């Protein structure tokens, strides 16, 4: 989604803003722009396409400024072109605004402003903000007051940064539903939609909450509500460093993050897994053992890849902790009238902690009285802050738009939660020890799979040009089939479907012929023989079979055209291994087709609109 960066200080702002925009590229965008305060005026430059196009446009040496705002836009209202790119200005060109989110009542506001004589030049919802602020500045208000007055008339979501040529060195930011962070350094201050553009300069940050504003200038910063009630906000220390948000020698963030997984899964378990006792300790749940024992039902809320991890969590928690679990698409949950009775705990899974549907579903569940626990990666994110407790998955920054290491860390933490809740219930010491030891061995086994990365290459050469793929699995491997298909479609734009293997004969089998590659996830578990039968059904119809199988399984070679092996583990942990070759397959197919893996078309890393 859109990204914001703003800077005030002693240094030249241009390189800081451009570098900041590059660090925000991972969020997904289609155009970019900047506005700087220079010699009592605003200079605005915009460009459709990549940040490097904008960079070319500002290379003329005309910008020599120390404060400014910049933006990457992911179009919602109006085509992705130069004009609709942010920043947007008022009639006089003295006020510039960058905005993440959607102004829902922009139609009404625009009509009123047009009637008052304001001239609009873009198709965006954001432009109304510039004109609304202008209106209040003309009434004699300072920029901060004018922004507050404008925002009080607005319905919708926003993270904004605003500058005015009349107040050099001042940037006003505000948030409602779209994150905004203030970076605090010595004599310089930053505003950004996440910490990525800030961490190279400072680790001291202040997270704004909904309905709050921040004003930064070289002299300092202050925070208040949009009604101008001052608020003291704590300064947090960001744990990530710059190295973690760079590619570290890999061609793409996605490949780096696939390779990060032995370490990221280890980090998710660090200090939590007690192998010798078959136990886990999760400090952040904020629940007493009695409260945990009283959980009667769990509803998991998530979207996309996080939803797939949730399905695996459902299987684990029901099998080992014997707690009934439902997994809901957050976007569906929030618009039904779901039953949230006493004893229901809501588990909210989100890498970014900012996905709007997930956040809104969590708020709805809490409104109905549920305790909400967050399984979140981004520290300080909105879901992490608004939940009643939870567990950070500690995967480290995930920059690749296609989620990889967050998925395996989410599943790892769900396994830890299963240990915690299971051992309080029917899980024996022996079973706890088995699960804990198997979990402990997972990072080493992922390493082994990654060492065989080249095995995927032949499959890419043979099938990379196909337009359709089917992914089939049963039990714990069914969500893996969904995840494998999602990975392929989002970065290579190949149509791929994930299905429970047994469902194939209820419809999708009609698709099978010699042009349909079918990926079977058929590791050795209770469903193995059934999956092998499904494989025979595909083979009988000349479908081409790629199997993900357990090391040492030679029988599978008789039915599959190609086999990618993964080490054996407990059935419930199998997804942590079987997903790895599927991530590599999707990555390599996309690269082979010349797709921009780190910035797939139409996609955004953090989906902060409905
Ligand atoms: C797929 C992917 C998305 C996200 C989804 C939820 O690779 O990344 O499907 O999983 O948008 O995002 P979070 O987990 O940030 O709530």
Written account of the structure:
The structure is a single chain. The mean pLDDT is 94. With 610 residues, this protein is of the alpha/beta class. The N and C termini lie close together (12 Å). The strands form 5 sheets. The protein has an 8-stranded antiparallel beta sheet with strand order 3-2-4-1-10-9-11-14, covered by helices on one side. Helices cover 35% and strands 22% of the residues. α13 packs antiparallel against α14. The chain is globular and about 80 Å long. The structure holds fructose -6-phosphate. The site of fructose -6-phosphate (F6R) has 15 residues, from α9 and α16.
Q: In whole angstroms, how far apart are the ends? A: 12 Å
Cα-based radius of gyration, to the nearest Å: 25 Å
Assembly type of the chains comes to single chain
Low-confidence stretches: none
Total strand count, please? Answer: 26
Helix content: 25-40%
How is the largest sheet built, in terms of strand order?
3-2-4-1-10-9-11-14
The small molecules bound here are: fructose -6-phosphate
| Shape label | globular
Residue-averaged pLDDT = 94
Helix-strand category:
alpha/beta
Strand content: 15-25%
H/I helix tally: 18
Please describe the biggest sheet, giving its number of strands, its sense, and whether it closes into a barrel.
8 strands, antiparallel
